[in-house]
């Protein structure tokens, strides 16, 4: 059974419809990349899953249809959403940001903190600093570290490598792969399709609010139209 | 010299009250991002509640406890009924709404209790004690002690508790807070409840020395804003220290600068706000919200 399923999900911002019936499924332990041009509905798909946009159609977790999907309820069900733009609490310290990541589990356990600092030693050095003072790459790491504190079943990431140096982007994806290997299901929206398809097991291509293509990441890498549109060769 | 000490001591006493109300203003600002102009009138309303309970034969401390409780509930109610419907609108709308609340609550207290000043017997005696030519009362000392106890509690709440962490998180970034699983709307309501309870402390502490009437806290509110700006809008300790400092400065200016006298005290407060904003916008204890360009 799939961990996550979207059935004919539509979403709108006021008058503008962003999703025209998205159907896709994500298996437990999967690593899924969402590809597509700007405005294709990738971000909105993530937002539909985490309950930060109004939708119609069904969203199922563990085969159970979900009603009243508020963001806080989804967080408690084990969904961690890292929005685009490194959502951190900018005036709060790095440590407070991490504590907030563990909110659904009560107080952050020292063991989990130590575990996260092992992944991101730099954050340990900066733990007392205001999050807003970190560099772009460090903030993205903090956002990811915070999601790690939630020990999510399903991690949703929006453009984690946007505006980052290639080396740092690689580092972020390495962490994602390691999280995935230890059991976290990952859905990532990424404009760098090459990186995304290398890390992912499955991928979906969105166009104007619909899924137009889906399958094994390796198959999509060989797909003629995907190569031309998103990989550029 | 004795007069100087006297002015400082009574300045500290009134400053304690400015500080307490400033603390409520800082608390609501830190937990909801709103500047609440109705904070003074809310405090007056709470003081009237306490007075009414005592008028019905309650002793002070039980009446005070009940007032805190009722004020907390009142704050929650106010948030749910008045603030929440416009929560997603611009912040300035909420701030202006609090000015409307100021007028409405003032009208309500006048309507219920009338405009005549009432004697309020607090827990501390107002009888003067003289030490070497300086007169002060237990009430004066009590206010200062209560102010420091309150600031200790508020600071501990923000820095040490899970609730405090959630309150700060929601004030910084409501959507992000919801994504980590915090019920943001509950936290905003709790912020209003706590500020209302803290305002109740200020009102009840002020009433014995100011006489209880519907406009009791109006000038105090202006001083409290000055105190909050002086100490730093974000800092609980800053609010109380700012209040005490302001009380002393106002008293000394009124005594030793002859053309200021009693009438220009408010103008001194204004000048102080302006000066602080120009020289040190984050206040004495405030931390500048740094952001990388």
> How much helix, percentage-wise, in residues of chain A?
25-40%
Gross morphology of chain A is globular
- CATH-level-2 architecture of chain B: Orthogonal Bundle
Computed CA radius of gyration of chain A, to the nearest angstrom: 17 Å
Q: Based on CA inertia axes, which overall geometry of chain B fits? A: globular
User: Runs of chain A with pLDDT <50, length 5+?
Assistant: none
Q: Please state the second-level CATH architecture of the largest domain in chain A.
A: 3-Layer(aba) Sandwich
Give the strand line-up of the largest sheet of chain B.
1-2
Q: How is the biggest beta sheet of chain A arranged?
A: 6 strands, mixed
What is the N-to-C succession of helices and strands of chain B?
HHHHEEHHHHHHH
Radius of gyration from the alpha-carbon trace of chain B, in angstroms: 19 Å
Class by alpha and beta content of chain A: alpha/beta
CATH level-3 fold name of chain B: ABC transporter involved in vitamin B12 uptake, BtuC
Q: For the largest beta sheet of chain A, what order do the strands appear in spatially?
A: 6-7-8-3-9-10
């Amino acid at each position: 059974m799939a961990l996550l399923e979207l059935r004919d999900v539509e979403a709108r911002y006021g008058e503008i419809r962003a999703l025209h019936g998205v159907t896709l499924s994500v298996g437990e332990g999967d690593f899924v990349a969402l590809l597509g041009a700007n405005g294709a509905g990738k971000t909105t798909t993530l937002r539909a899953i985490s309950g930060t946009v109004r939708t119609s159609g069904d969203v199922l977790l563990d085969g159970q249809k979900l009603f009243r999907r508020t963001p806080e309820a989804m967080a408690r069900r084990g969904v961690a959403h890292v929005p685009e733009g490194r959502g951190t609490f900018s005036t709060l310290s790095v440590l407070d940001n991490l504590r907030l990541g563990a909110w659904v589990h009560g107080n952050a356990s020292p063991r989990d903190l130590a575990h996260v600092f092992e992944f991101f030693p730099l954050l340990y050095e900066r733990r007392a600093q205001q999050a807003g003072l970190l560099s772009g790459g460090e903030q993205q790491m903090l956002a990811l570290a915070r999601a790690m504190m939630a020990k999510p079943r399903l991690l949703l990431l929006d453009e984690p490598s946007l505006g980052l140096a290639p080396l740092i982007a690689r580092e972020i994806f390495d962490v994602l792969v390691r999280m995935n290997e230890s059991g976290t299901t990952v859905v990532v929206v990424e404009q760098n399709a090459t990186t995304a398809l290398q890390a992912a097991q499955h991928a979906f291509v969105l166009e104007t609010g619909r899924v137009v293509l889906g399958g094994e990441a390796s198959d999509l890498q060989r797909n003629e139209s995907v190569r031309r549109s998103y990989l550029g060769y | 010299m004795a007069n100087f000490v006297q002015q400082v001591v009574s300045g500290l006493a009134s400053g304690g009250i400015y500080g307490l109300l400033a603390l409520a203003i800082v608390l609501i600002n830190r937990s909801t991002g709103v500047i609440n102009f109705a904070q003074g009138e809310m405090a007056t309303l709470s003081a009237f509640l306490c007075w009414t309970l005592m008028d019905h034969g309650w002793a002070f401390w039980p009446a005070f406890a009940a007032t805190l409780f009722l004020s907390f509930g009142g704050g929650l109610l106010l948030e749910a009924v008045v603030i929440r419907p416009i929560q997603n609108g611009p912040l300035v709308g909420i701030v202006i709404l609090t000015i409307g609340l100021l007028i409405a609550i003032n009208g309500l207290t006048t309507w219920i209790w009338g405009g005549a000043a009432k004697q309020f017997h607090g827990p501390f005696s107002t009888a003067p004690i003289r030490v070497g030519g300086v007169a002060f009362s237990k009430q004066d000392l009590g206010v200062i002690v209560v102010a420091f106890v309150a600031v200790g509690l508020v600071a501990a709440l923000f820095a040490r508790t899970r609730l405090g962490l959630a309150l700060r998180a929601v004030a910084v970034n409501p959507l992000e807070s919801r994504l980590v699983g915090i019920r943001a709307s509950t936290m905003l309501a709790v912020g209003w409840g706590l500020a209302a309870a803290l305002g109740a402390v200020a009102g009840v502490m002020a009433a014995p020395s100011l006489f209880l009437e519907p406009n009791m806290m109006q000038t105090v509110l202006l001083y409290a804003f000055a105190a909050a700006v002086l100490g730093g809008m974000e800092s609980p300790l800053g609010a109380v220290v700012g209040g005490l400092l302001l009380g002393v400065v106002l008293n000394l200016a009124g005594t030793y600068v002859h053309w200021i006298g009693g009438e220009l005290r408010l103008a001194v407060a204004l000048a102080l706000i302006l000066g602080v904003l120009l020289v040190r916008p984050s206040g004495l204890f405030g931390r500048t919200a740094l952001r990388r360009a």
